[in-house]
Amino acid sequence: MSNIAAHRLTTPPDALTKLLAPSEAEIMCLLWQHGPMTIKPVHLRIAAQRDVAYTTILRTMERLVDKGLVQRGSRQDLGGAYIYTPAASEQAFVAERLADILGAVERDYPTALAQYLGSRRPPR
Length: 124
Hints:
Elements: H1 3-6, H2 13-16, H3 22-34, H4 39-47, H5 54-66, E1 70-74, E2 82-86, H6 90-108, H7 110-119
Antiparallel strand pairs: 1-2
Helix pairs in contact: 4-5, 6-7
């Protein structure tokens, strides 16, 4: 196994639910794992695991587009179907969310953050 693969961030959907709604995390994991897809294969993969309507997947993917997490493009060879692509890699998404969270904590609770970081220092 190469070093790159060994250090690749692979976040399970249940961990991503700390950052996204469960249905959004499920779809993002599929897109990160399998690459750009139309709604149909996303629906088929999720429907194989649980009962879910095609329109539910459609609405969730549109919500991800609205949030800027997924980009929607059209492909002529797919009969004009929209193809959905993650706007950022999984690692970039998690890093951005972590920076947002830490920035908010630093802004709203600077003393608590300083105390936490002070308690996390390794012994000398």
